[in-house]
Description:
The structure is a single chain. The protein has two domains: 2-95, Glutaredoxin; 122-163, no CATH class. The protein has five helices and four strands; from the N terminus they run H-E-H-E-H-E-E-H-H. The protein has helices at residues 2-10, 29-39, 54-57, 87-95, 124-144; strands spanning 21-24, 45-48, 66-69, 75-79. The strands form two sheets. Strands 1-2 form a two-stranded parallel sheet.
Amino acid sequence: MAHNQKMLEENPDWAGKIRIIGLSIDQDKEKLKSHVEAKGWGKVEHFFRGKSDASEVYGVRGVPHVMLIDKTGKIVFKGHPANRPDLKGDMEKLANGEMPEGLGGAAGGAGGAGDSKSNTTLSLDDCLKEADVFKNETQDKLLADKEAYAGMPRAFCVLTINA
């Protein structure tokens, strides 16, 4: 959140074009409010999720989590911010009506290097077939060959289906 606050402070020209919204997963609204005030994170718009199902609806599985939304309201990326090499540049391109490199297909991900299916739009049937292939063939190969994933920042793989 401090990084988000700093980006907004350093880019006053974003006013009216780029919004950074924090959706709190905290359990107590008053603690959230006092924490935000104490940290001076006033430029970021903060919303309290409370008991809503927003995390489930948008597929949020951990924090930090970012969603980039284009001018039409379409989610063009969602995931860990580290999966976008130039998040600030992505935001500026979207604000100018441009699509950042590697985005524009299915919402949700910047797959790993060499991931030819990242951001590919598939029919639901094709997507489910891909999930079955991964479940029944690919995951066993990956788990058997530890060298194949030794360089990954985390030793797990996530396959998501949005339908």
